[in-house]
Automatic annotation (TrEMBL), chain A:
It comes from Faecalicatena faecalis. It comes from the Bacteria. GO terms for molecular function: ATP binding. Keywords: ATP-binding, Nucleotide-binding, Transport. PROSITE patterns: ABC_TRANSPORTER_1 (PS00211), ABC_TRANSPORTER_2 (PS50893). Pfam families: ABC_tran. Residues 6-242 form the ABC transporter domain. This is ABC transporter ATP-binding protein. Coiled coil: none annotated. The lineage of its organism: Bacteria, Bacillati, Bacillota, Clostridia, Lachnospirales. SMART domains: AAA. Belongs to the ABC transporter superfamily.
């Protein structure tokens, strides 16, 4: 059996003064190349869990291993440079051009200019943006969807083995979101990378995930393939979640 | 208007070097102050955010400091730092710090948390986050703060001239002192243009280095409102300046005499300085003693009081014979006291229907003062002696003295060139301070100024070649008042007969040096001579 890409061993996290676990004694492991979606309502601990992977938050208890390596024993800056990170607000730097934004990590790693330029062009093409048209623009000149594509390109710059995405499409309109989801699936299929995507949209979770992790109140309710979860929900919360999704679908049935 | 234009042209033709020096001083003081203020304000602003709780009190302290007018700061600093460029810069730096500090704090504060988190998430070290994300995003705010500070500094640097730090303020104060609109305009407009130029330069910097701000659509609107604000600021400046320029130039067309008198209320006027107010108060007390009702109209600017009496706004006031001769009548210089008095008496009667009553021996004329220890050391008693030693002495001039016809030009015509070791301009109120603190050795003064009562410290030099006209004090009264109340002449002449230079100097000293109330000093003196 190969070493899992990400492994949580009895990990807990509380925030000062909150008095309850944001993440409550969680254990799981993710095989390399999986596209894992983490689904839950706000406050369920899904973002906290994600941010512990690249140590934006430190766990209070338990261990997190990446490819068998304890993250707490690795230099935090080096660790993060190996992990792609995308957030809902894109976090693009407004004072840098698109090219400079995408080249952020390669520059931190002191790649030479030609290599950076070639990589930027490649990445922009990969996320569906024409390099010559977009390279010299600033983030404020792009639409929300385009900005998120740049955010994606930036996170992919140094071919990280693990990508963390925190509701990346939460702020774009429905049509753009579908386009971006397709793009993301395409990018994932071409590379042997482990994607971890947090969402509160059940359709997004089940559409993208090779496996879906359902969280509630800091605990994992179920972690399985979409088909298994739909056919055999593990607890009442998961069952309710699926029922509510089906209820919503009914809305469309009368309008054939 | 045309006349002012010609005067301005001739000013530039004759004094271009002087102008450029002032301009250079103004710019260098302003830039240095900004630099120092930035070196203090930017780190403090950052610390405010870094250590959150300190923000409130740091900002608080500087807000309070900012309320203190720069002029007050200057005066407060004199005992500590003396005069010159250093205290001037200190005042300007204090003025400039708050806007830089607060904008820096705002700049660092507005960087969104999620942006910092993504930066960290991508593997930037704290230092890289600071230099590559925080600083670039804070810079536009810091620039805004610096721009505000720069404009405030440029405007306020005019007062640096009050304490010998030079700059365009010198031209403005000279203009105020001589009531010369051309100089006021040259100085004021230059300051305004400098401010505008500074604003433009900062906007350009912002445009060049912060290009990203001006790409989105929303930002353009912000930019436009910024330009509007700048334009409004410029307009205010220009209006202020034209106000200062016009203020000193009040219309002098006479309203004509009113024939009827306002019963027995006598309006006694006074110029707006200590001696004028003491003497006017003495006149008023004497008139009240004789049963008149007196209305005191004190604090009239020296340059407009003649207009006031001609326009029937006051009935009498103490005037100096020399002022009447040179400033009011614009006649040629005469140095014999009796001859001056006779001339002004005749001319005032003819031209203005005003009567000069008897003149007193009190002579408040122009003089030069030297520190007593130095006078003894070098054996200087007269202005002729002084001229020989000029190259060893530092001269503390006041605004208009170097320009005024009866100032340096008259001195040099009679005594020869004065080759001062150095010559700086100070505010008139500081001259004794400057001499006491050994920052200068010689200063122009008026011969009855209070501090001169202390002869161990200051020595008034004898005008041995009679450059300066006598400035004897005498009451000037409207003819119609005198006709209706002839006894006024006797009442006031009795007072003039008792006054001399020494007694007036002593009275001035009581008010200016010992800080007594001028009304008490006047009544005490009046009781003693009555």
């Amino acid at each position: 059996m190969s070493v899992p890409a990400i492994e949580f061993k009895d990990v807990s996290k509380t925030f000062d003064g909150s008095g309850y676990y944001a993440v409550d004694h969680v254990s799981f492991s993710i095989e390399e190349g999986g596209f894992i979606t983490i689904l839950g309502s706000s406050g369920c601990g899904k973002t906290t869990l994600l941010k512990m992977v690249n140590r934006l938050y430190e766990p209070d208890e338990g261990k997190i291993l990446l490819f068998g390596e304890d993250t707490s024993e690795v230099d935090v800056v080096k660790l993060r440079r190996r992990i792609g990170y995308v957030i809902q607000q894109t976090g693009l730097f407004p004072h840098m051009t698109i090219a400079d934004n995408v080249a952020t990590v390669p520059k931190l790693l002191k790649w030479d200019k030609q290599r950076i330029e070639a990589r930027v062009n490649e990445l922009l093409k990969m996320v569906g943006l024409e390099p010559e048209e977009f390279k010299k623009r600033y983030p404020s000149q792009l639409s929300g969807g385009q900005q998120q594509r740049v955010g994606l390109a930036r996170a992919l710059a140094v071919e990280p083995k693990i990508m963390l995405m925190d509701e990346p499409f939460g702020a774009v309109d429905a049509i753009t979101r579908i386009g971006l989801q397709e793009e993301l699936l395409r990018i994932h299929s071409g590379l042997k990378r482990t994607f971890l995507l947090v969402t509160h949209d059940i359709h997004e979770a089940f559409k993208l995930g090779t496996k879906v992790m359902i969280m509630n109140q800091g605990k994992i309710c179920q972690f399985d393939t979409p088909a298994n979860i739909i056919h055999d929900p593990a607890d009442e919360f998961t069952a309710a979640l699926i029922r509510s999704a089906r209820e919503q679908e009914k809305l469309w049935e009368g309008y054939v | 208007m045309n006349e002012i234009w010609i005067k301005m042209q001739s000013y530039f033709a004759n004094s271009l070097d002087e102008y450029l020096t002032s301009l250079g001083e103004h710019i260098s003081i302003s830039l240095l102050s900004l630099l120092v203020a930035a070196m203090i304000g930017i780190p403090l602003g950052y610390l405010c955010i870094r250590y959150g709780r300190s923000k409130r009190w740091i900002v608080g302290i500087f807000q309070v400091l900012r309320i203190i007018p720069s002029l007050a700061v200057l005066i407060l600093l004199i005992p500590i730092m003396g005069t010159g460029v250093r205290p001037a810069m200190t005042a300007l730096v204090l003025l400039a710090i708050p806007s830089i500090l607060m904008n820096t704090a705002d700049g660092f504060e507005q960087v969104p948390k999620f942006m910092l988190e993504t930066a960290a998430g991508m593997g930037m070290t704290q230092r890289q986050i600071f230099w590559k994300v925080k600083v670039p995003l804070a810079v536009p705010y810091i620039l805004t703060g610096a721009r505000t500070a720069m404009i405030e500094i440029i405007a306020s640097a005019t007062i640096a001239a009050k304490i010998g730090a030079g700059g365009l303020g010198g031209i403005i104060f000279t203009g105020l002192g001589l009531n010369r609109t051309d100089l006021l305009l040259v100085g004021g407009v230059s300051v305004a243009l400098l401010s505008i130029l500074a604003g433009v330069i900062f906007n350009l910097l912002d445009r060049i280095f912060m290009r990203y701000k001006y790409t989105g659509k929303g930002e353009k609107r912000k930019m436009r409102s910024k330009m509007k604000r700048a334009a409004a600021a410029c307009l205010c400046m220009v209006m202020l300046i034209s106000l200062t320029a016009c203020g000193g130039n009040k219309d002098s067309d006479a309203k004509g005499n009113k024939e009827a008198e306002k019963s027995s209320v006598i309006r006694v006027g006074s110029k707006d300085f200590t001696e004028g107010m003491i003497v006017s108060e003495i006149y008023a007390l004497a008139l009240e003693d004789a049963g008149y009702q007196v209305e005191r109209v004190f604090d009239i600017a020296g340059s407009v009081i003649h207009t006031s009496i001609v326009n029937d706004e006051i009935d009498l006031y103490p005037e100096y014979t020399g002022t009447g001769l040179l400033s009011v009548l614009g006649m040629d210089l005469i140095t014999d006291p009796q001859e001056v008095y006779d001339t002004v008496k005749d001319e005032y009667e003819k031209q203005f229907q005003l009567t000069w009553l008897d003149y007193s021996q009190a002579n408040d004329g122009q003089g030069l003062v030297i520190r007593t220890d130095l006078a003894k050391e070098l054996g200087i008693k007269t202005i002729s002696d002084l001229q020989k030693h000029a190259s060893e002495l530092r001269f503390a001039s006041q605004g208009e003295f170097n320009e005024r016809e009866d100032g340096i030009p008259a001195l040099e015509k009679t005594y020869g060139k004065f080759d001062w070791k150095s010559s700086k301009v100070y505010d008139g109120g500081l001259k004794y301070e400057v001499l006491s603190s050994d920052e200068a050795d010689v200063t122009p003064a008026y011969t009855t100024e209070g501090p001169l009562a202390d002869k161990d410290k200051f020595t008034l030099l004898e005008d041995d070649k009679h450059v300066w006209p006598p400035y004897n004090l005498a009451p000037v009264v409207r003819d119609n008042i005198l006709k209706a109340n002839p006894d006024i002449a006797d009442i006031l002449n009795a007072i003039s007969a008792k006054m001399d230079t020494e007694s007036i100097t002593a009275l001035n000293a009581k008010v200016d040096v010992e800080k007594e109330d001028y009304e008490d000093v006047a009544s005490e003196y009046y009781e003693s001579i009555k």
